[in-house]
Amino acid sequence: MWRKTLSAGLVLVIGLSACARDDPATAVPEIGEGAETPQEAVENLVVLLNDPDFTAAGRLMVPGHAALASLVEGATFAQVADAIEDGDVAVASNFWAGFAQGAGSFLTGSVTTSNGPVVNESGLDFHTVEVTLDDGSRRQILTRDAKGFRIDLFASFAAGLADKMIPPVERLITSQTDDASIILPALKEIVPSLLVAASQPDMTPRSIQEILRLLELITRVS
């Protein structure tokens, strides 16, 4: 399973996105429609990462996921809450920009895709797309229907995020603020994604432990 640190620029972008709400002249990218099929979502992402067109790629991520992921890079709770409420396409775009720079040939070279199994968790269907690289190695991307099929960041890449999210989530739980009241429900919405990630056959024991620890923290909140 792919593991990496998110681009440090994620914090800058999420801050700029929050400021855009107060500036009518600054347009916040619209989420638009997702792909018609799970495989098309991944294939479109590959094309957009190679172009590159990271703004369009940002629209292919499940809304709110990039905002939550920015917790690992030190985004303030106010910035995360604003991105959840006002849209996080710009943050998702920056995520994919960092991904393209740091992931080598994965999704940024010549790949082939095929449909994998559908996993149902908590009433949600997660559609697996198998990605085969030129060297024959395989990766899995999980997609979900969110007004069109989009990449589920946490179902796909929780192994690279969970351990870094634990400290800010611990602080968030003890924070009795309006921002926390926005972020905590959004975190609960990713519980099915984390459960799916922890069940993936290529997940290491360490990664599973980290994901389960994050799950325990999120579900602790009433």
Quick rundown:
The protein has eleven helices and four strands. It has helices at residues 9-20, 38-50, 54-58, 65-69, 77-86, 89-102, 153-157, 162-173, 178-189, 191-198, 205-220, and strands spanning 111-121, 124-133, 138-145, 149-151.
Please provide a written account of the structure.
By secondary structure, the protein is α+β, with helices and mostly antiparallel strands. The protein has one domain (9-220). It has helices spanning 9-20, 38-50, 54-58, 65-69, 77-86, 89-102, 153-157, 162-173, 178-189, 191-198, 205-220, and strands at residues 111-121, 124-133, 138-145, 149-151. Strands 1-2-3-4 form a four-stranded antiparallel β-sheet. Helix 1 crosses helix 5 and helix 5 (77-86) crosses helix 9 (178-189). It is globular, with a radius of gyration of 16 Å.
